[in-house]
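Quick one: structure tokens for this chain, please?
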Amino acid sequence: MAVRQEAVRDVLTRRFGADADPDGLSTLRLMQVLRAWNPRQLSLAELESRLEDALYACVRRRWGDELLISAPGGWRRLTTDDLAEGADALLGLLFADLPVHAANCELVRDYAMRTGSAAALGALCGRFGAFQSEEERALMRRILDDRSCD
């Protein structure tokens, strides 16, 4: 996969702040995980787990064991949900890079239905929308909208 370095850095910045990766090493590590993915050898769930582990190592290296990051109004502690959402956002970069064909749509759909991944649901609504009925796309959009209201 040809995931761009800027895209990975943007995910880190959006999720963890502008100072999330000052030396660029976290971006490079996460890119390596994404680019090494082979769907015949590693499921999307296993890839997500590897991304979450790599992300944890990156933020721990950056902020130490306390995992306190700068946030509006002070500091906040990173949670496992933050790491899971970050890994899902990184998977979204992979979904944006997958060739658009029926086999990849099925791969993403299966992952979305098993995990509820926002990135997978978004890819099904957008890039892989032609492989689904209008009713399926509407359902995916409702699920995403409901999640964004939480």
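Residues 44-63 form the longest helix (20 residues).
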